[in-house]
Design a protein that fits this description.
single chain; 715 residues; mainly beta; 5-stranded mixed beta sheet; 2 helices; 54 strands; 52% strand
């Protein structure tokens, strides 16, 4: 049996597909590259960050990072098998350690060495959080630490504290034990000055105390410092109490003068007796304190009193005050662009208000201003130069204030008085009259069309204003309302009703006779059908009820094939009556046919045609007039026939009431009641003229040929 080459190729392709489908799952997985690891740096301390990167065998495979036997990180490699990660060195003894990456799928690994070095540290702990600080005579906790040390080893180092300059004395402790755990980590705490030698260690001076840890007599392993002051803080807000304390005033009956200055201005100076060698004094920062650096000085007030090597002098700061102001409308929504102004109230004359700062709030309603003094302030908000909020506040520190302004949203809804439904596309014109803080009268005008829900919403309008709203439908004014918005009205809504009216349409024909049982349709101006009715049989009236506005009225023939009249009507009053005059219905039409010379053409056939009716004909009488009575007129076509065949003249005509139209047959002339073409008449006239001339010529010849009679002489 012969097998075609095409059949063989198809069979081979099917076999290849079959083998691919069933053998592929048993093939080895695709791998990226051999697992490899890079570590940076390769030496460091406990807690240092180590960066690792490299590749694993499995594309998009998972990896794990180990520090010795501790897994410190895991993740997923990318589609090239690459990874990049980092971790912090865990607690470990000093020496060489192994960092390894494991391909979770392929279980292949790579590793690098990392050397942990010992680290020594010393620091003051439980220090008051700034701006608070230690004061003289404080007991300070000092912590010594070792990481990366030898396991289970007892360390003892020399820890010293040096007094502020120019005192410079140093106190020490060499007996603090540091016993490391199995990971080479140790920590212990001692108290300065309690645990330091020689006897007499103290914190009687203001300034910086230096802490040092010595690994041997000359090598500094670590260092730190702490601050001792004479105030319990370095920054104070207005009305806060400054707690002042100084020690080592030990002379009999000793007292000291506590002085506080701002620059060169002396704010207070008090003599305070020492109690057990300690001077204490509390001073409250005034509410109207100016921002700046204040200096506290304590000095003995007796002859031969205590003269400390490090003088008791220290600065503290009263900062500028950051004031954040949020302006909102009565709905408490943020409003940007409001002029927020800060006035300081003069404490000596509260009616005197000094403008300090002002500016426009941002798009989120916020503004931030800085004050140099605390005290009584007046916050004012202005919108369109109208005062919309006035609030008196006490400002003594950084603070935020919300000014709810007398501005709100206004929403107008227009409804159909007949159906109660919202009315879209109603033109609303709004006039806003108000006075500014400078008694300047202003008027704003806004206009808009109501949306598809019959609404117009205006955002952030003044409460303290006079409003006039005017509503128009099809360019006709149907509502004028003057209103104000009550104070604190969170949201102002106004419903406007477009009224509806009853009215009557009386239909008449061309002879002013009532048209009974004739359809009348009312259309929205520029829109679709609104209503329709049939006139009363006897009166020709049709009653309607419609919403205020402009309408298109159409009167139809009973078959509703012809519009007898179409007019625009503005419905603005109740119980109105309107005559819809069908001037083309039952109309008379006279067609007068004349010849070239304007003479009536008798016996001409006249045909009148108009769309929607059958053609009608009439014959001109002696006066050349064809009369059509009681027709449906309007736009029509008149054709003039002088016999059978084609019309000799055609033309448009509009028929209403008692219409008359004259058609002049320029190509025809009437002679003795006969109609001939003007060209034939011209030939006839020419012949007659020639004959007349010939006769005159003959008469002239005859007279010339006759002999002359003798002339008689007079007797």
């Amino acid at each position: 049996m012969h097998v075609s080459i095409r059949t063989k190729k198809s069979a081979i392709l099917l076999i290849a597909l079959f083998l691919t489908m069933y053998i592929t799952p048993f093939l080895p997985r695709t791998y990226a590259a051999p697992t490899a690891l890079t570590v940076s740096p390769n030496t460091g301390f406990v807690g240092d960050q180590i960066n690792v990167n490299g590749t694993i065998d499995t594309i998009n495979g998972g990896y794990q990072i180990f520090f010795d036997s501790i897994m410190v990180k895991n993740g997923t490699a990318n589609n090239a098998g690459r990874f990049a990660d980092s971790f912090k060195v865990p607690h470990a003894i000093n020496g060489t350690h192994t960092i390894m990456v494991l391909d979770v799928t392929a279980t292949t690994t790579d590793s690098k060495n990392f050397t942990v070095k010992p680290k020594y540290s010393v620091k003051a702990i439980n220090v008051p959080t700034a701006p608070s600080q230690y004061q003289e005579d404080a007991q300070v906790e000092i912590q010594a630490n070792i990481t990366g040390g030898d396991p289970s080893r007892l360390y003892q180092y020399n820890i010293t504290v040096t007094l502020p300059s120019p005192a410079g004395a140093t106190y020490y402790n060499t007996t603090l034990p540091l016993l490391t755990d199995l990971n080479g980590t140790a920590s212990n705490v001692l108290i300065y000055p309690r645990d330091f030698l020689p006897v007499g260690a103290h914190t009687n001076y203001t300034g910086s105390y230096q802490i040092r840890l010595y690994k041997n007599a000359t090598t500094i392993g670590a260092q730190d410092s702490f601050i001792i002051g004479i105030t319990n803080a370095t920054i104070y807000q207005r009305l806060q109490w400054v707690n002042i304390k100084a020690t080592n005033y030990t002379k009999p009956n000793e007292n000291a003068t506590v002085t506080i200055k701002l620059g060169s201005r002396n704010l207070t100076s008090q003599k305070i007796p020492a109690v057990n060698g300690t001077i204490t004094y509390n001073w409250q920062v005034p509410i109207n304190a100016s921002a700046g650096t204040y200096t506290v000085t304590i000095a003995t007030a007796i002859p031969n009193g205590t003269n400390k090597i490090v003088a008791d002098i220290q600065n503290f700061t009263v900062p500028n005050i950051s004031v954040k102001i949020l302006t909102t409308n009565l709905l408490e929504e943020p409003v940007g662009g409001v002029n927020a102004t800060i006035y300081r109230i003069d404490p000596s004359n509260t009616s005197n208000k000094i403008k300090i700062a002002s500016g426009l709030t941002n798009s989120t309603g916020w503004i931030v201003k800085t004050l140099e003094q605390g005290g009584d302030y007046m916050l004012k908000a202005f919108w369109k130069d109208v005062l919309v909020n006035e609030t008196q506040v006490v400002i003594q520190k950084d603070s935020s204030w919300s000014l709810i302004c007398q501005i709100t949203h206004i929403e107008f809804t227009v409804r159909d008085g007949k159906t109660g439904l919202p009315m879209p596309f109603i033109y609303l014109g709004l006039n806003i009259n108000y006075s500014t803080v400078k008694n300047v009268s202003r008027m704003e005008a806004q206009a808009h069309l109501t949306n598809t829900t019959g609404k117009w919403k205006l955002l952030n309008q003044l409460v303290d204003a006079n409003y006039t709203i005017r509503a128009y439908r099809t360019e006709l004014l149907f509502n004028t309302t003057v209103f104000t918005i009550p104070p604190n009205q969170r949201f102002f809504q106004m419903n406007l009703t477009c009224p509806f009216f009853n009215f009557t349409i009386h239909a008449e024909d061309a002879k002013h006779a009532a048209l009974g049982e004739f359809p009348i349709k009312i259309y929205e101006y520029g829109g679709g059908l609104y209503d329709e009715a049939i006139t009363d049989t006897n009166s020709g009236n049709a009653a309607f009820s419609a919403t205020f506005g402009k309408y298109v009225l159409r009167l139809y023939n009973p078959e509703q094939t012809i519009v007898l009249n179409e007019t625009t009507y503005s419905l603005t009053t109740q119980n109105a009556s309107f005559i819809l005059y069908g001037a083309i219905y039952n109309a008379n039409l006279s067609i007068r046919v004349v010849d070239y010379f304007g003479q009536p053409v008798t016996g001409a056939k006249v045909k009148f045609e108009r769309e929607g009716t059958d053609p009608i004909t009439a014959t001109t009488g002696a006066d050349g007039v064809a009369f059509f009575s009681g027709i449906i007129g309007g736009d029509g076509l008149v054709s003039i026939y002088l016999g059978d065949g084609q019309p000799v003249e055609t033309g448009p005509v509009y028929a209403e009431k008692n219409a008359l139209a004259i058609f002049k047959l320029e190509k025809y002339v009437t002679i003795f009641g006969m109609i001939i073409e003007a060209s034939q008449f011209g030939v006839l006239v020419t012949i007659l003229v020639i004959l007349a001339l010939f006769v005159l010529f003959l008469l002239y010849r005859r007279r010339k040929a006759s002999p002359a009679k003798p002339t008689e002489k007079p007797s």
